[in-house]
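Incident review: delayed structure delivery

Summary: a single-chain prediction request sat in the queue longer than the usual turnaround. Root cause was a stuck worker, restarted by the on-call engineer. No data loss occurred. The affected request and its eventual output are reproduced below so the record is complete for anyone auditing the incident later.

Affected input:
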Amino acid sequence: MRIAPLSPRGTVRRHHLVLACALALSAGTAQAQQATAQNTPDPTTLDAVQVTGIRAAIESAVATKNESTSIVEAISAEDIGKLPDISIADSISRLPGIATQRVDGRSQVVQIRGMSEQFVGTTLNGREQVSTGESRGVEFDQYPAELINAVTVYKTADAAVVGQGLSGTVDLQTIRPLDLGERRIVITGNGEKNSLGKLSSDGDDKGYRASASYVDQFADDTIGIALGVARLNSPFQEQHYKEWWWANTDVWGQSQPGKPADAIALQGQEAWVKSRDLTRDGVMGAFEFKPNEHFHSILDVYWSKFQQDEVMHGAMWTNDAYWTGMNGQPAGYQNIGLTERNGYPIITSGTQTGVQPLVRNDNNTREDKLFSAGWTNTLSFDPWTVSLDLNYSRAERRQSQLETYAGLADPQDVGFQVPISAGYGHYSLADLSDPNSVYLWDVQNYGHDGRLENSWQKDEIKAGRLQFTYDVDTAFVRSFDFGANINRRSKDKRSDVYFATLRDGPTLVDPSLLMSPTSLGFVGMGNLLTFNPRALLDRYYDVAISESNDDLRKDYVVDEDVNTYYLRANIDMDLTDRVRVRGNAGMQYITTDQSSTGFNANGGAITGSQTLGARYHDALPSLNLVFDFGDGWNVRFGAAKQLMRAPINYLSADSSASVSQTTSLWEGSGGNPTLEPYRANAVDLSLEKYMGRASYASLALFYKDLETYIYRQTIPWDFTGYNPDGEAPISNIGTFSTWANGTGGYMRGVEAAVTLTGDLFSERLDGFGVQLNGSYTESSIDPDPNDATPGTDTIPGLSKVVANATLFYEKYGWGARISQRYRDPYRGEYSSLFGQRQYRNTLSERSVDLQVSYAFPDTSVLKGLSVMFQVNNLTNEPFRTEVSESTNSTGLFLPEEYTEYGRQYLLGFSYKL
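Output delivered after worker restart:
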């Protein structure tokens, strides 16, 4: 037995990107200010020099930020299209204070100012959008970057913005054809390859991306048409390793053969390879009509279909102290090696005895359809303007998840070496690819030989908005906006769970149904028996519906009627001869009527259903002021009362409730349709310096006082109307474990950003540029006050430090850009077993993207053609999580998941007519 010391967890590190931001804000601003005074015009009177490419995108984004009356961040179409981004989530996450959470290797949701995606509002052309996920957080991988013209992220509240989030609001914008003023046809194409190669015979490592767009104007520029299509066929590969949980089970009085007393041991492990074939089709259309200065009409439509076919081939098994094999013997240890951490011995090598490795062959399919349409008509007769907007948004998801089990007939001894820092483990297994030895059967005693879950959900919004604008000629107020938005939302979810049972007991697979073995060599496990599980279902299995209480509770409907009435005064005045003040002050009054219908499940059967709900209203004042001191200096101030309605899945009326045979009192658990929203008071302050058309520096402070937060609690509950299923309760009042409103806390932080172009310093640096930003956020909120488990006292989505750095060059047709995104460790929310949601401690990430391009000049016969090479995830950054030692007595955090997704290489072209 050997004991080797290991350095303690949590050594202090310097965050280089944040330091770079601070240095750039101090030194860069001072130097650039002098050059700006001599060489560039006032930023509020930019001249009409035409600039294209990366520089044009930055100029557009800087202008949007400068001219806004709120604190915003922005991206333009060139910025999105010039980056190696599969979706706009990657592009958005490069903005100050914004991070993305990777799901299955791709950026899917965004988190603003340390708060999870559930606190982010998302709109398309100013209209609230539905989600293909289980709750409100929009999955941005549904939106092709090629079809989005611009993105504006509002960090402060505005009375006229409907569907706002508590942490921020992301507004996706499609093109307005009359704004372009010319015909434009663009065609793009990219070939794609994953660096991990083809991991299984039924996977793929090559794909493509293609898009085409057409914009034109007719009838003396009174009619405009825009049409865009985009297709993505992308291979995602995954090499996954996970250490399930760690514990010193002696604390619970459960020892294991061969395990030293009080040693901490890994209790289960898994490794697999996954291949995902993602196909996404997107269509965007806009029809614009403006016959005169009084009338303007625009109809825009967005549609996408996202299909995913995923195959997984892996091995997994438990070796915990409570498990026994088919022979009735527990798992044990031989020849162990120990590593010490913080004085605690941890088993890191040796032989596991009597374990039963399970071979998994899974197939998961998913189809998402997203549709959004809006029609806005605006009529103007000085001093009045009236606009009517009608819009509709719908998302549907159909998903099928199939897993099958196989393995050797007898218990096995497995040699192992496991890391206690992030990385792959190594195991020595018997041959799990032998078709004469590996049987289909219930290796791990799950009680079934396979599992199939088919689910469907639909999220739908029908909304209408009427707004009046009255222009006034005063020294203080420029105009008034007032109006109403009527929103009807319904989310419907259904799920069916089936168990598969082998007709003839343990069965060998017909060799004609087998594929080439899949290698798990990256963890030393060798080859696996590989097959298409759906091809085996009809031949070997009987499939019957079998649902637990949790499965039955997955069916529910949530309805929301939300009416927003608002008034906004638009401010524009000269405070002094040198100081101009602009902004807005306003109020929203929101009424909400929410309800849900769900099932009560008890003993694996539905005992009844219930419809519950609540009504509430809120008055939300807001103020945004911009003090323009001239010479590019702005000070922004924002103050508002904000809210975010509870996650939709929290509002489900599902329950598992019954009358206790011991106490004759009701008790149970489930969702809570009576939840009221998160509510907060927010204050923001920002100092900005603009230096020409494409350079600026900013420093922002923010503070949010959350008056309420939503926690998992056990509360008194009125069970009137619930079916007691034959028992006689002594009262209809009992206890219910559910989500409930409680006291909140603060979120506060600082953000710094700088964008500098080289020509501010020297003509020799013309074409070069740098973008740096960083943020620091902290919170007093403990989202799980009743959970003493280490790592649960952090609000989901909170990375204290988030930073981005981009270096770019564009001149003489050549363009190059390299970007790095960094985020501190955070507590992320992910899908878990059987469709449940789970919080996991996710370690820090540094993601690097690269793009190099060349645009042929106007003098070339190839005018309009650009070629480009791109790499996504250049450094093959792994996804890493950790888990606390399960007895909660050591304070140790140990590795959980380590997954690599490889690099995505893209080579392609863009042709503009």
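Verification: The radius of gyration is 29 Å.
Action items: add queue-age alerting; document worker restart procedure.
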